Amino acid sequence: MRNFGFQYKKKDAFCNFCSRTKNPHPDFNEPIVVKKIKFNNKALFICINCHFDFLERADGNEDVFNNLIAEKYNLINLLQKANIFKNFDYEKYKL
Ligand SMILES: [Zn+2]
How far is CA 39 from the centre of its chain? Predict the structure, then answer.
């Protein structure tokens, strides 16, 4: 299996794209599996779910994948600036 550089059982794991901190699978009570990525010289973490979701949508194309990451990250930044996520239930809406 290809090693994507994911980190398992990282205590302070957090996905910058869906804001999850825990593995969403009901059988696993553990931190979410994340991978460190660089975007605009910032270190971000992406969880395994978001990563494969983007990869699937990009059809394996790295440029499209990077564009999807950029789009989603910019959108999240915008919404955070507008304070929409203040009392947001991330788990409920699975953003
Ligand atoms: Zn995620």
Answer: 12
pLDDT of residue 81: 82
Tell whether pTM > 0.85.
no
What distance in angstroms lies between residue 14's CA and the mean position of ligand 1's atoms?
8
Distance 59 CA to ligand 1 centre (A): 18
Alpha helices per DSSP H over 1-95? 48-57, 62-81, 90-93
Residues in the chain: 95
How many angstroms does the Cα of residue 2 sit away from the middle of ligand 1? 20
Q: pLDDT for 8-37, tens place per residue?
A: 999 999 999 999 999 888 888 899 999 999
